[in-house]
Each structure stands twice: as structure tokens, then as C-alpha cells.
Known about the structure:
Layout: H1 2-6, E1 18-19, E2 29-34, E3 37-39, E4 45-48, E5 66-74, E6 78-86, H2 88-94, E7 99-102, E8 105-108, E9 112-114, H3 118-135
Parallel strand pairs: 4-6
Antiparallel strand pairs: 1-7, 2-3, 2-5, 3-4, 5-6, 7-8, 8-9
Helix pairs in contact: 2-3
Amino acid sequence: WYQRRVRGGPGPEPGRPHRAPHCRLYPNICVHHQKRKLWVSGTQQALMHKSSVNCTAGNYVFPSPFFAYGEKIKSRVIAAKSTTMVTPLHLVMFGSSSVIWHRHHLLLDEWIPIDMPPRSAALVCGLRRALEELLLPCC
Length: 139
């Protein structure tokens, strides 16, 4: 996908999703919905843990709705603890195992929608691949 889009070859077939497989460096990603409510997967909701510095009583709008969390705790409800806000660029670069271009949006791990131009996404995915190739021999 990256080589065809960036290097000027024929682009992907319209209407067909394309993947760029990667390893995931942020395993626990969630999307802020409202107040304390979070989406921790495409179908599962959780609450932001009350001890989290990002937990607010009001309807605060965060600069980025995406968070990485340290652990999920299940008591009466599922709660995400140790949350850190991350940007869409962080997620494309380090936080997804798959990147799909689908209906004018990027879909990370097939459930997190990101608004990013396809050329920018291709460049970021290419940069990620180059970093992985550089770091792999070191590990």
C-alpha cells in the first residue's frame, strides 16, 4: 500500500480497503466518549477510573479523544486506569496493529476512525516501517 501510493505507482482500487500490517506498541487504546465514558474496543465500553488525572466531573472536551491506559479493572463496572492522552499521529505511528483506508477515513485496528489524508497516512506508515527496520537488528 505504501509503495503504490507514495512512489507514484498505480493507486489502490477505489472502494477496496487496504492494510498496512504493523506491530502494536500501545496495546491498550481507548476513545473518550463523554464525561467518564470510554470505548475500549469497537463494542466494549468502560469508565475512566476516578483516580485518573484525566477523570473530570463535567463534560470536558479533550484536545484529543484518544487515550492509552495502563490497566483495565473490573469491579461493578470496567474502568481504565492510568490514562494518558495520545494524538492521532501517535496512534498511526505506534498504536495500531492494522491501518485500513476505508470510506474517506483511516481505521486503526478496524474500529478507531482517524481523519487523515491518505498520502499523509502512507508517509507515516512508511516512516514507521523504516523505524522498525532500523530498531529490529538492535533488539
